[in-house]
Amino acid sequence: MDSQAASSMSDFSDKDRKELQQFIENEQQKSKFQTNVHNLTDMCWSKCMTSKITGTAIDKGENSCLENCVNRFIDSQKTIVKQLDHMGGRA
Amino acid sequence: MQTIQHETNVENARMLIEKINEKCFEKCIPKPGSSLSSGESLCLTNCMQKYMAAWNTVSAAYITRIKSDPAL
């Protein structure tokens, strides 16, 4: 935000400012979520879609592979953070 | 506010297109020839649909996980 936009923030009422802040927080969260989904889809596509593409539908095996991929990635992340914690490092 | 929302959506779409292009090119055009064959075109069309379906599956699984795991 440039200084001109920042100074004009003071022209808003408290209620408006709070509302705007909430809106921006929501958008940031949405954007972060979408970025995470893009990265997960990228990784899990490489791991799960190994056969030739013959149609547009995801079969049962691919579907469960994708779901497992998402969950195991989060498990890995949690395990690594926990390990780092034990090492006394800051994660 | 609409501008911000619009920007978020545009960025999301841009990212999706970039990923589809990368993944489907890799999958459908293993050996680039002098032009796209009809088979390669068909593969790209299918792959695109399939990638979006995969995105939705991953998104749903991620949401389920976030909801069931309060630590996240």
TrEMBL record, chain A:
Q: Which domain of life is it from?
A: Eukaryota
Q: What SUPFAM superfamilies has UniProt attached to this entry?
A: Tim10-like
Q: Where is the composition biased (Polar residues)?
A: 1-11
The reply on keyword Protein transport is: yes
Can you supply one Gene Ontology CC term for this chain's record? mitochondrial inner membrane
**Domain Tim10-like span(s) in chain numbering:** 22-84
- Which residue intervals make up region (Disordered)? 1-20
Q: Where in the cell is it found?
A: Mitochondrion inner membrane
- What Pfam families does its record include? zf-Tim10_DDP
The record gives the membrane topology as:
Peripheral membrane protein
Primary localization: mitochondrion
- InterPro entries found in the cross-reference section: Tim10-like, Tim10-like_dom_sf
Q: Which UniProt keywords apply?
A: Chaperone, Disulfide bond, Membrane, Mitochondrion, Mitochondrion inner membrane, Protein transport, Translocation, Transport
Could you mention a single GO BP entry for this protein? protein transport
Q: How does it assemble?
A: Heterohexamer.
| Domain notes from UniProt | The twin CX3C motif contains 4 conserved Cys residues that form 2 disulfide bonds in the mitochondrial intermembrane space.
Its family remark reads: Belongs to the small Tim family.
Could you tell me what this protein does? Answer: Mitochondrial intermembrane chaperone that participates in the import and insertion of some multi-pass transmembrane proteins into the mitochondrial inner membrane. Also required for the transfer of beta-barrel precursors from the TOM complex to the sorting and assembly machinery (SAM complex) of the outer membrane. Acts as a chaperone-like protein that protects the hydrophobic precursors from aggregation and guide them through the mitochondrial intermembrane space.
* Protein name (record): Mitochondrial import inner membrane translocase subunit
- State the species of origin: Morchella conica CCBAS932
UniProtKB/TrEMBL annotation, chain B:
> Molecular function terms in GO for this entry?
metal ion binding
Cross-referenced InterPro entries, in alphabetical order?
A: Tim10-like, Tim10-like_dom_sf
* Annotated ranges, domain Tim10-like: 2-63
Q: What is the membrane topology here?
A: Peripheral membrane protein
UniProt xrefs under Pfam families:
zf-Tim10_DDP (PF02953)
GO biological process: one example: protein transport
- Alphabetically ordered keywords of this record: Chaperone, Disulfide bond, Membrane, Metal-binding, Mitochondrion, Mitochondrion inner membrane, Protein transport, Translocation, Transport, Zinc
- Where does this one sit in the cell? Mitochondrion inner membrane
Instruction: List the GO terms this entry assigns under cellular component, sorted alphabetically.
Output: mitochondrial inner membrane; mitochondrial intermembrane space chaperone complex
Mitochondrion found in the keyword field: yes
Record carries keyword Mitochondrion: yes
Q: What is the documented function of this protein?
A: Mitochondrial intermembrane chaperone that participates in the import and insertion of some multi-pass transmembrane proteins into the mitochondrial inner membrane. Also required for the transfer of beta-barrel precursors from the TOM complex to the sorting and assembly machinery (SAM complex) of the outer membrane. Acts as a chaperone-like protein that protects the hydrophobic precursors from aggregation and guide them through the mitochondrial intermembrane space.
Q: Which family does it belong to?
A: Belongs to the small Tim family.
Q: How is this protein organized at the quaternary level? A: Heterohexamer; composed of 3 copies of TIM8 and 3 copies of TIM13, named soluble 70 kDa complex. Associates with the TIM22 complex, whose core is composed of TIM22 and TIM54. Interacts with the transmembrane regions of multi-pass transmembrane proteins in transit.
What does UniProt say about this protein's domains? The twin CX3C motif contains 4 conserved Cys residues that form 2 disulfide bonds in the mitochondrial intermembrane space.
User: What protein is this chain from?
Assistant: Mitochondrial import inner membrane translocase subunit
